Amino acid sequence: MGFEFWMFLSLVYVSHFHFHFHGLSLAEKAPYYSFVHEAAMAPEVSFYDYIIIGGGTAGCPLAATLSESANVLVLERGGSPYENPSKPDKGNFFQNLLDVSPSSYAQEFTSEDGVYNARARVLGGGSVINAGFYSRAEPEFLKQAGLNEALVNYSYQWVEKKIAFEPPMLQWQSALRDGLLEAGVLPNNGFTFDHIYGTKIGGTIFDGDDHRHTAADLLEYANPYRIKVYLHATVEKIIFETKVFSRTRAQGVVFEDELGKKHWALLTKDYKSEVILSAGALGSPQLLMLSGIGPSQQLKKFGIKVVMDQPMVGQGLVDNPLNVLLVPSPSPVELSLVSFVGITRFGSYIEACSGISFTPSWSRSVAKALAAILNQTEQSSTKLFQEGILNPESLLDTRIRGGIIFEKVKDPISSGYLELRNMNPRDNPKVTFNYFQAPEDLMKCVHGVKIAIDAVYSKSFSNFRYEILSAKALLELIVNLPLNQRPRHLTSAFSLEKFCMDTVMTIWHYHGGCRLGKVVDRDYKVLGVEALRIVDGSTFTSSPGTNPQATVMMLGRYMGLKILQERYFGKYRKK
């Protein structure tokens, strides 16, 4: 580490000084930050040291850190999670994901593979709409990214002080955890943020009152006098300066407010000022292309001036396949999202939630599928669902009695790509993930689903399953639900290979498109361009840990400190 590490420590000291000096007065105002405004209030032209595109899971901690010693602008295309403080809370998880209104936190899209998906559009990004699980990356991920271990640990702790909690382990979650241990996902590692093989209780961003804490809360660390956050600010393109015999250099951005008025945010004359993309695995490659950096043939197709031909932009896009079991329960279950995880050695993660609310139409689908399977022979076991068939409105405030078990494939080999659909930055690009293209990915899923089934039929979980429901019936229930737009094989409930392919879903952990070493260097600078970085999941070559949000937030803090170090102390080699 040597001298570089001591420079990091000096930045940490400065960071703590700013927090203690500004933090108390700001925290009293939080979450109604004085520096957050609608984009319509922005001046026509403004100047900043750093312009961050995207106030999401990476953008918020990055902005808070940079504001300690520089003037920062954050442009977020969505609204604020604080306008309706209870909306992001635990009980509204699925409703927020399924909300298709123009002001929703999640913008839906369907991949070319026929899988429904969603993309966050709210201050705080995916941390506002996810299942809340908080778990650090595996050491291999951090080593591959070339990150400084001491600074990584400090950055994780900086995040955790503000938004991470230990979840309660009530009856349903505890029974399933014990079932996983029976199924051989050993050892029992208790509660830890660390990534360890076996079964563990991880962190959560929901507090004891089921209130969600998000990356937006990390803005409490910001210096309120050196930061501006504009909401409903849609960036149309990055502005570049191109000169003969000089590298292309980012100068600023053009963004549009909710009324359709254009604004120009430009970098100050300091040569260390930068535009930083933190728009996510879809937004960052999309905006690079709209700005003229990407595969030249695709750009020319839409009449976009080619600033730099970069064929790797949009490539290497990966989504971790998700397959589920829905398990109705004869006993009452608690409302819970992901509280523990089974980390297998063969490359599969098992997580679960219980007692959640669906929309009435989705509840009706569940009811019909289950009634058909049981042929309405076990009235007591389908009472809740059959009531929903007759009166779906009654399920609006009803939590389903049962749970959902998730199986996620770790490090899929299958990858896809992103292409522009049009030139409108508000529209989602065209996305293909190529789920299970690699046979190795399919084998991981099959093995993982077997483990999940073993856990369901374990002695520990016996109070929360109906004996009448066989494993085949559980598979058939999922096959008959409208989980995606993919065709079904007649043998989907008999063959786990077909089950995995036919019922694949997303767990919203897609990444890539601006990969490290392909589009950005190890300092997350865009190759061949000055004053432009990308700090978000689009740079990842794999999804970190069981759930990426902890590492994405850590990376925002980490890179904020690295950028400040470079700004004020220059770049130092490791010694």
TrEMBL record:
Entry-linked PROSITE patterns: GMC_OXRED_2 (PS00624)
Residue pairs linked by disulfide bridges in the UniProt entry: 445-500
Residues that coordinate or bind FAD: 76-77, 122, 235, 508-509, 537, 548-549
Glucose-methanol-choline oxidoreductase N-terminal domain sequence ranges: 280-294
InterPro entries membership: FAD/NAD-bd_sf, GMC_Oxidoreductase-Related, GMC_OxRdtase, GMC_OxRdtase_N, GMC_OxRtase_C
Keyword Repeat part of the UniProt annotation: no
Necessary cofactors: FAD
GO molecular function, one term: flavin adenine dinucleotide binding
Keyword presence, Signal: yes
Keywords associated with the record: Disulfide bond, FAD, Flavoprotein, Signal
Family in the record: Belongs to the GMC oxidoreductase family.
Listed name of the protein: Protein HOTHEAD-like isoform X1
Natural source organism: Gossypium australe
